[in-house]
Specification:
- The protein is an alpha+beta fold and 305 residues long.
- The protein has 2 domains: 89 residues, Phosphorylase Kinase, domain 1 (2-Layer Sandwich), CATH 3.30.200.20; 147 residues, D-amino Acid Aminotransferase, Chain A, domain 1 (2-Layer Sandwich), CATH 3.30.470.20.
- The chain contains 6 helices and 18 strands.
- The strands form 4 sheets. Strands 6, 9, 10, 13, 14, 15, 16, 17 and 18 form a 9-stranded mixed beta sheet that branches.
- Strand 16 and strand 17 form a beta hairpin.
- The radius of gyration is 19 Å and the shape is globular.
- It starts with 16 loop residues before the first strand and ends in a 6-residue tail after the last helix.
- Keywords: ATP-binding, Ligase, Nucleotide-binding, Purine biosynthesis.
- Pathway: Purine metabolism; IMP biosynthesis via de novo pathway; 5-amino-1-(5-phospho-D-ribosyl)imidazole-4-carboxamide from 5-amino-1-(5-phospho-D-ribosyl)imidazole-4-carboxylate: step 1/2.
- It catalyses: 5-amino-1-(5-phospho-D-ribosyl)imidazole-4-carboxylate + L-aspartate + ATP = (2S)-2-[5-amino-1-(5-phospho-beta-D-ribosyl)imidazole-4-carboxamido]succinate + ADP + phosphate + 2 H(+).
- This is Phosphoribosylaminoimidazole-succinocarboxamide synthase.
């Protein structure tokens, strides 16, 4: 692991499960010997309330964030299961992590972040301004922040170590990494998932600007959708009535956190060696409210907490 990888809080001990690994947000467990799931090829994936920004895991959690990520992913899996199978097996989990965990099929994950973009922003906009391309794909002249692309693009990234940036790569690089048949399947499924999700979001007055999917292979060799899906952590959701090309659109995610960290109030040097400071209560409250609003607007119901 990279020396710059962040130190993470200890994962909780859970009856029937053995801690395997932790990422920026999730803790992963395998079935303990003699447990109800023992001998089955599954994992318990727990979404914590941790939040990351600028490649740092912050010390200040966002209450109920893990429940939003879990519930929204489960809802989206149901909306998309006719596009591609998913890894969700059960939401019956230990009471200590009820509402924030799911039992999932163990997959052999592809080392590719399967990103779909329908609008130009973020790292895609940076590359476009430099080269007129996104992941090596040429785009028309005259596009700007939040411009709608002529058609959605598959813009993959290579997965990075914890604490480092994913690296945008070309489709040709994906072919080199996983082979032509798998690369084609990843591209086709990613764009099909994006099209379905963007249509659902549009019906609810939300633009899905971009999103990332993680895909793997199940025991039978079939393609399976894993990890989280179409959450505020993995996607840019914009209110359609506040979108205008040429300016940054407000989003249903951790933007309050990013904005505060880069403001004079934080007194933090993003390029320095010090970790980010603790978040103020108002930033925590507004960020939590934004996640909950995303869930309610997309699903049509408030999250049962």
């Amino acid at each position: 692991m990279s020396p710059s990888a962040p130190a993470l809080p200890l994962a909780p001990a859970l009856p029937g499960w053995t801690h395997l690994s932790s990422g920026k947000v999730r803790d992963v467990y395998t079935p303990a010997p003699g447990s109800a799931w023992s001998g089955q090829d599954v994992l318990l994936v727990v979404a914590s309330d941790r939040i990351s920004a600028y490649d740092h895991v912050l010390d200040t959690p966002i209450p109920d964030k893990g429940k939003v990520l879990t519930a929204l992913s489960a809802w989206w899996f149901d909306q998309l299961d006719d596009v591609v199978a998913n890894h969700l097996v059960s939401l019956e989990v230990p009471v200590q992590v009820a509402g924030r965990a799911m039992v999932c099929r163990r997959l052999r994950m592809y080392p590719v972040e399967c990103v779909a973009r329908g609008y130009l922003t973020g790292s895609g906009l940076v590359e476009y301004r430099q080269n007129g391309t996104v992941c090596g794909q040429a785009l028309p002249e005259g596009l700007t922040e939040a411009s709608r692309l002529p058609e959605p693009l598959f813009t993959p990234a290579a997965k990075a170590e914890l604490g480092e940036h994913d690296e945008n790569i070309t489709y040709e690089r994906v072919v080199e990494m996983v082979g032509a048949p798998a690369a084609q399947a990843l591209r086709e499924v990613t764009l099909a998932l994006y099209a379905r999700a963007a249509g659902i979001a549009a019906e609810r007055g939300i633009i899905l600007a971009d999103t990332k999917f993680e895909l793997g292979v199940g025991a039978d060799g079939s393609l399976v959708l894993g990890d989280e899906v179409l959450t505020p952590d993995s996607s840019r959701f914009w209110p359609a009535d506040q979108w205008s090309p040429g300016r940054v659109a407000p989003s249903f995610d951790k933007q309050y956190v990013r904005d505060w960290l880069t403001s004079p109030a934080a007194r933090w040097d993003r390029d320095g060696d010090q970790p980010p400071p603790a978040l103020p209560e108002d930033v925590v409250a507004r960020t939590r409210a934004r996640y909950l609003e995303a869930y309610e607007r997309l699903t049509g119901s408030p999250l049962d907490l």
